[in-house]
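Lab meeting, item 3. Inverse folding demo.
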C-alpha cells in the first residue's frame, strides 16, 4: 500500500540445528512474499545472531516488524529478552506482530515518553490506515507517581493526541504504572 521496500533478516539467539542454510531459506521466503504481495522484498545478506546487528540494520529503516512469538522464551536476567532489547534500542518505530492478521489492523498502540521524538512517532502512527482506534500509552514508575503526576501525564497525552489535528481515528489515551518497558 505504501510502496515500501521490505527487507527481511534472519535473527535468532540460539541457531536452529535443523536449519542448514538460513539465508537460502530467507531468500526463498523473500521471493514468496514479493510474488504474493507484489512488493519489493530484499533479504539481508547476513544472518544475525546479535541484537546489536539487528539494531544496526534497523537504523536506516522506517519501521521494524518483529514476530513476538519466538522471542519471549530466552531470558537474560540483566538485559531482558532479545525482544525487549530490540523494542528499547531501535530508533525506528517497532511493529510487534503477535499473529497473522486476518484483516487490516483496527488498533495501533503507541508508547510515548513525552520526548521530542514522541510527537513525530504519533504523527507516524497516525499515517497508518487504521479503521478504528489509535491509542497513546504512557507508563510512569510507581516510585515517583502521585495523583498530580498522573493528572499531568494524562493532560500531556491529550495535548499529544490533539497534535494530530482533525483525524478519522478514534484516539484513546491511557497511563499505566510500573516499569515502562514491561507495560
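The presenter then showed the designed sequence:
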Amino acid at each position: 500500500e505504501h510502496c515500501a521496500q521490505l527487507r527481511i533478516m534472519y535473527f535468532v539467539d540460539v541457531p536452529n540445528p535443523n536449519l542448514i542454510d538460513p539465508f537460502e531459506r530467507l531468500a526463498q521466503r523473500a521471493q514468496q512474499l514479493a510474488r504474493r504481495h507484489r512488493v519489493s522484498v530484499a533479504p539481508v545478506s547476513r544472518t544475525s545472531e546479535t541484537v546489536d546487528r539487528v539494531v544496526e540494520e534497523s537504523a536506516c529503516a522506517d519501521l521494524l516488524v518483529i514476530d513476538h512469538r519466538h522471542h519471549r522464551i530466552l531470558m537474560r536476567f540483566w538485559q531482558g529478552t532479545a525482544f525487549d532489547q530490540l523494542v528499547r534500542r531501535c530508533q525506528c518505530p517497532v511493529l510487534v506482530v503477535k499473529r497473522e492478521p486476518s484483516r487490516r489492523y483496527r488498533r495501533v498502540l503507541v508508547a510515548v515518553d513525552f520526548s521530542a521524538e514522541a510527537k513525530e512517532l504519533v504523527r507516524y502512527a497516525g499515517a497508518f490506515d487504521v479503521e478504528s482506534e489509535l491509542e497513546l500509552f504512557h507508563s510512569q514508575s510507581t516510585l515517583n507517581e502521585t495523583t498530580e503526576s498522573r493528572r499531568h501525564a494524562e493532560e500531556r497525552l491529550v495535548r499529544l493526541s490533539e497534535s494530530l489535528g482533525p483525524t478519522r481515528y478514534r484516539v484513546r489515551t491511557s497511563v499505566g504504572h510500573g516499569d515502562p518497558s514491561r507495560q
